[in-house]
Amino acid sequence: MDMSRREFAMLAGGAAAAMGSLPARAIAAADDPGLPWYWTIKRIGQTNFNERDPEFGDVEAWADFWAAAKVQAVALSVSGPVAFYPTKVPFFHVSSDLKGRDLFGECLTAAKKRGIRVFGRMSPDIQYTDPELLAAHPLWFRRDQAGRLQLPAPDIAFTCQFSGQFTDQQPTILRELVSRYDIDGVYMNGWPTMQVCYCENCRKIGDPHTEAYKVALMDSATRLTDLYRGILVGKKSDNFYSCNVAGGMEDSGLDQWGLTRNANWYTSDNQSRSRMDEPVWQDAQQVKYAHAMMGDRPVAAVTASYTRSGQTMWRQVTDSTIEPLTRMAQTAAAGGVVWYHHLGLEQGFREDRRWQQHGIDFLSWHAANDAHFHNSRSLANVAVVLPTNTMSHRKEEKGKSTDYLQGFYAALIDARIPVDFIHENDLTLQRLEPYRLLILPNFAMMSDPQAQALTAYAERGGSLLATYQTGLFTETGAARADFALGSLFGVSKTGEVRGEVETVLGAFAPIHLQSIRKVGPVTEGFDNTTWIAGPSWTVPIQATGSDVPLTFIDPYPVYPPEAVYQRVPPSDRPAVVLRQKGDARHAYFAGDMDATYWRLDNPDIGRLLVNTIRWQLNGDVPVSVDGDGLMEVIGWQTQPGYAIHLLNYNGPNAFRGHMRKLIALGPQVVRVTLPSARPIRTARLLRAGGTAAFKQSDRTIEVSVPSVDLHEVVALEV
To answer: What is the longest distance spanned by two Cα atoms in the chain?
Structure first.
């Protein structure tokens, strides 16, 4: 049955009921008087103070640098365990080197003189363990099970959210700030977090590892953020408040959707790759992840200027590779606010000044082309639905819960197909309507309203691609007898999951191969073979009224060589199920193809994912780029027209934590199908400089790009 737009809107709205609606996109022009200042800025600078900085700090040199870098706002250290202004708040430790100075006030004045806005950086999660404070407020601090303070540094301890440190001390500091200084907002670092505390207050709440404790922590965080925001907005209506929700896609335990319902700003404080196995495209991805929760509200991603290799950090030594540059480029390309960060006022302006060149180079270029970074709509017609509930609660046999999403993201980059993210709590008509294809990466824990919204989307002509256990569990984790979307894909479950078997060699055997049963678009490129690599884990299914181009081959030994042969003929168990209804093309993989691709990087699996996506799109790709190299493509409609971002991910060590240097790419041909037939006046290459040759035929534009260095932006001006 076909549904009307109104019926679909009512049905899909149930999936996001009580979540609040996201604001409609507005073009955030730098001079738009109808928007708060923080909606229009695109560049932020930050230099964290340390306790010795007041003794040496050259405020004018600091302000001159950020002015030369063309930032529009700076984050200034107000507090952590140390006050950098002469506070009158009790138990707020003043820097021992302040000696009558007001370092915060001096920097604020210098920045404002140069037309730069200022917001305070606070860190309520830590305090000095002064004996008088410990005696007066012992419950301000987190304790371990033995009752000892949790100390990240000598004489500094973590504070407990369920204490006066958060309910009394921080509001007092905020009120003092807004009464003394013309600040434009506050960012709070290090909070909220899934703290583990056994102080007296926390013992009354319960075990810190329980769901009840987590709920209490999130409820408290919501009340506190409302309190802090109210103090700032009460002073000046366009002030902003932002807490720290980290920014990475790994489960931190935080209910990011809940925390961002009333947020006016999102600080994605994932400054560098904290593990050596994190993808080179991490920053672009985390900006998209944040926008899936924030909609069109501002998202800023912090880029560290210091050197990091996994968990090891040289926090006052400049990262002289191009990693900081590529992270800033990814932030800008994905529609985020670029936030460049260094530690130490004195160290950063006397001891090691190498970090400054990256900032000047990228930020000043970005400022010169500012209009092209104010986006009105994405040009992508493919979106990945983020199954955050599944990622938080489903235990993995191996690997990480984000591997499913990463596998599809890698395949889409392989194919150079632009992609957006959609949060699972935002499956409304307005949100889904722009997309031809929705990808469901092991969306295992699915509610009935979510399943109904996705079914309604499909009935209106949208295509769905799902993997593995999608829809086999309710939102609470209860097992379903069959797939929630089984009738849509034409599949039903016939058994329990089958997985990898560890061999006596200590290696994991490839549990399944896939037998090619039908040659077609999905199996294109698999010449001279009757089988290809398969996934690690599978769900036994049967298919009705669907096309089955591949089936599974039951596993057999991988050693010794004499034993490596099939024991039985290829099974009839479907590996891939395809179904077409009108313009909609649906595909279901009965295995963890996405996660297996990310974990094991098998080219057969990557090709099969890309082939399937291309079959589902049926040639409808609004932005395509032909040429060599690994490249992420992101397209936007902008104030001047359109901007196509080409992010180059080719370079030594690109997948080992930081790109050392760049391998430039050769000629690329960019093709764009415009949303409407608008004559393009000129095509500019913003990084290379100058214009580019282009051809236009009705809504189709073709642009020749001679080469791509770190990042190229093809700006089509109308």
So the answer is: 84
End-to-end C-alpha distance for the chain, whole angstroms? 42
As a whole number of angstroms, the distance between CA 92 and CA 128 comes to 9
Residue 444's nearest CA partner among 398, 403, 475 is 475
Percent of the chain with pLDDT over 90: 75
141 residue type, one letter: F
Phi and psi at 306, nearest 5°, equal -90, 170
* Calpha distance 258→230 (Å, rounded): 18
DSSP 441: S
Portions of the chain given CATH number 2.60.40.1180: 623-717
Phi and psi for 572 in degrees, rounded to 5?
-95, 10
CATH annotation of 623-717: 2.60.40.1180
Tokens representing 167 are 């309910």
Length of the chain: 718
Structure tokens at 138: 């012992």
Comparing C-alpha atoms, which of 476, 380, 507 is closest to residue 435? 380
Cα separation, 132 vs 117, whole angstroms: 37
Q: Is 609 helix (H, G, I), strand (E, B) or coil?
A: helix
Distance CA 174, CA 228 (A): 8
User: Is the pTM of the predicted complex or chain greater than 0.85?
Assistant: yes
337 burial via Cβ count (<10 Å: 0-12, 13-18, 19+): buried
- Intervals of CATH 3.40.50.880 along the chain: 380-617
Burial of 177-208, coded b for 16+ CB within 10 Å and e otherwise, reads bbebbebbbbbbbbbbbebbbbbebbeebeeb
DSSP 472: S
Q: Quick one: DSSP state of residue 25?
A: P
Residue 508 has pLDDT above 90, yes or no: no
- Phi then psi dihedrals of residue 441, to 5 deg: -80, 95
Q: Residues near 505 by Cβ (< 8 Å), separated by ≥ 6?
A: 559
| Range 380-617 has CATH code 3.30.450.40 | no
pLDDT digit string, tens, across residues 609-638: 999 999 999 999 999 999 999 999 999 999
Burial status of residue 464 (CB atoms within 10 A of its CB: 0-12, 13-18, 19 or more): buried
The predicted-structure confidence for 448-500, as pLDDT tens digits, reads as follows: 999 999 999 999 999 999 999 999 999 999 999 999 999 999 999 999 998 86
Q: How far apart are CA 470 and CA 255, in angstroms?
A: 22
Give me the amino acid identity at 391. Answer: M
Taking alpha carbons only, the member of 370, 322, 291 closest to residue 711 is 322
Residues forming CATH 3.20.20.80 domain(s) in the chain: 42-124+165-368
Edge-to-edge strand ranges of the sheet holding 43-48: 240-242, 185-188, 117-122, 73-77, 43-48, 337-343, 299-304, 266-268
Q: Which backbone phi and psi does 551 adopt, to 5 degrees? A: -125, 170
Residues 200, 177 contacting (CB under 8 angstroms)? no
Backbone angles phi, psi at 325, to 5 degrees: -65, -45
Spacing of C-alpha 190 from chain mean position: 18
Residues 598 and 653: their CA atoms lie apart, in Å, by 17
- DSSP labels, 397-428: SSS-TTHHHHHHHHHHHHHT---EEEETT---
Query: What's domain 42-124+165-368's architecture?
Result: Alpha-Beta Barrel (3.20)
- State the average pLDDT over residues 577-587: 96
Element (H, E) at 358: helix 355-368
Which helix (H) or strand (E) segment is 12 a member of? helix 5-13
